[in-house]
Amino acid sequence: MNLDWNIVWDHRAELLDGALLTVLLTVLTMVVAVPVGIVLALMRLSKSRVLAGASQAYVEFFRNLPLILVVYWAFYVMPVLLHIQFSAFTTGLVALCLNVSAYNAETFRAGINSIRKGQTEAAIAVGMSRWQAMKKVVIPQAWRRVLPVLASTWVSLFKDTSLVSVIAVGELAHVALQIRSSSFRVLEMLTAMAVIYWLMGYPQAKLVDWIQKRFEVKE
Amino acid sequence: MDFDFSALLDSWQYLLGGLGITLLLSLLTGIGALVLGTALGLGRVYGPAWLRIPIVFYIDTQRAIPVLVVLVWFYFAVPILTGISFHPFWAALMALTLHIAAYVAEIVRAGIESIRPGQIRAALALGMSRPQIVRKVVLPQALVRMLPAFGSILSITIKDTAIATVIAVPELMKRAETIAGQSYRPIEVFTVVMVIYFIILFPGTRLIDALYKRVAHLGRS
A155, A209, B214, B216: which has the fewest Cβ within 10 Å? Predict the structure, then answer.
């Protein structure tokens, strides 16, 4: 077996660009999916049955689909449905946002629900408005439970960005797989890809563990 | 916009075969990951110190690397290294099992560690041996507590098998791509396949939730 590891160094600029795009996709998806998730959670907890039902339907639908299928679906269906041609990057971003905002909605809902109703009732009894009770009583406690879950969603998202490579978004996985097929240096490129993901993902996984320990709620 | 489902009607058997492969791959992966993951989880909690370090490293590595990368590496790189090449199905089974076992191990560990140490001390005070405590006090409660998490593992497993399409395992996702490509009807094909995945996954997760509600009291302490 003759291996030529120089191929990895020769393509360092492309790999770096791919890695940066992976990070960019992760950040942009989270930036969109957190507010959307909050809105969906509030819809679900609202008194309106229509809003609650719509939110629940959305969340259950996207949590129960393989992300790779959503990526393909967005790629083929969005342009026809909306009559706009999207770049591969935008399409990938939309698919990731659809998926992650559903998970975030559940995270926020569980976080808010984890604070006993009696606390909100007590806050209203002492004369706070609903919004004040939410802001001063529920949210300060709920975010401690929400943050660790968001952190682990972050890591899953970071890994899931590799799936948009199937529609040729030039992130790390796609770049590495492209170089593999043009150079025929299969083992070297695939190993390099795994190592780069590991180097980026390992510290994140450890950070999640730390956050989870730090914010652990003892019953 | 007009829809044409004739391509789907023509090849529904082909698609159904894909569904069968998806379910078979999910089932085998689920069993494999459960066995390997439980061994890793138990090894991490009760094993000797020299064993814990590689187990933790393995689990965290799998948590850091996308499943797509594991699949592609297993299918394309392992044959170069070892000279043995696998059918895509077996490569996918091994890669998915190795990946998901790490998550199972974390669930097993969290379940075991959720049992308060006071109970173990009480059991020791009663004169029970360590293996007895694990078998009679820790595991009966921990297993119930792990149930909802195993439910999500089941769902993740089925969803992850769709990624095996990248190494051309002829499962539902791959066959949908094939039909969509041949018929030039991607919208109809992918939408129908979306509904199929949803119909499988949604009741599955609901069933586990319902089961947990019935047995949850057994895990309380």
Answer: B214
Predicted confidence at residue B198, as pLDDT, reads 95
CA angle B186–B164–B198, rounded 5-degree value:
55
CA distance, residue B63 to nearest chain A CA (Å): 7
pTM of structure: 0.90
**Rounded distance between C-alpha atoms, residue A192 and residue A22, angstroms:** 15
Taking the Cβ of residue B207 and every Cβ of chain A, the question of whether any pair is shorter than 8 Å is answered with no
Give the Cα separation of B9 and B179 in Å (integer): 11
- Cα–Cα distance, B128 to B122 (Å, whole number): 9
CB contact (8 A) between residue B163 and residue A193: no
Mean pLDDT by 10 residues, chain B (221 residues): 77 91 96 96 92 94 95 92 91 96 95 91 92 91 89 92 94 92 88 94 84 79 65
Does A65 touch chain B if contact means CB atoms closer than 8 Å?
A: yes
How confident is the model at residue A58, as a pLDDT? 96
d(CA A178, CA A189): 9
Q: In chain A, which residue's Cα lies nearest the Cα of B186?
A: A76
Cβ–Cβ under 8 Å, residues A169 and A87: no
Rounded distance between C-alpha atoms, residue B89 and residue B24, angstroms: 10
